[in-house]
Specification:
The protein has 292 residues and is α/β, with parallel strands linked by helices. It has 11 helices and 10 strands. The radius of gyration is 18 Å and the shape is globular.
Length: 292
Amino acid sequence: MFDLLPSRSGQILICGHRGHIVDGHENTRPAFRRAAELGASLCEIDLRMTRDGRLVVFHDDILDNASTGTGLISQLDCGEIAKARTKARTGQSIEGQPIEPVEDVLAFCRDLGLGLIVEIKDKVHDDAYLEQVASSLRQAGMFERVLISSFDYVVLGDIKKVAPGIRTMGINYHRLVEPAEAARSASMDVMNTDYPQFAPDIAENLHGAGVGVSHYVPRPEHFALRRDYGADYHKDLEGYLRDGLIDMLVCDDVAWMVEFAASCGLTVSRPFQNNGGGDASPQQTRREADHG
């Protein structure tokens, strides 16, 4: 199991949100490979279940916005979805990639030496869904490298019952009155608070309960214009990092996160880089991916 409280030792986890996607397609092998090359500790991926009961890695409930396909994933078989290719939401001209079953993505990221945050996007109606998720992690040898995440805190509590020992992360958009109580109610190991709701008291409350603190921030260009107007969130963020308030940064831009953490005197924790093929060269992993 990797350390979810690296702030205690001057380290931080860096997570590529759906991979490194500032110049690539989300939830795809090139995005994960580039994140690993740039120094990410983990990547975040999204799960959806197809009509024939397969788990695929894709964010939306429909194919239309981020792929060449159309329709609800829940109303399509995995074979039909496999015919589609990803496309950039921003309109960038980038070669489309397959929408892959979760087991293939798990194996690929394992061999890159990455951990994963696996976000359950579907509304879960029974334990069979969660049992399938846990089984996929075990079969890929990724059970101890993964955080299961969700906005649905009931799901986080339920998967701990289905798969004892699994670790979870709750996603939070709000300034909670009692963050640690919310975390405790779902037995979560990490809580993520998105910008701009993050505040030092949230982190201090969570750390006091032994819960890891994750913080999602938009891409650096989001803050550029605001900085011209005198609002410099990066300066605030630097203070939070130097004070040891954050255990994991999550962003679309892995290169920026790694550089920013280093500028704040932190070491990026890469707990899996020498395990399961994580020490392979970028050239080797690229050849394996191209022939996978």
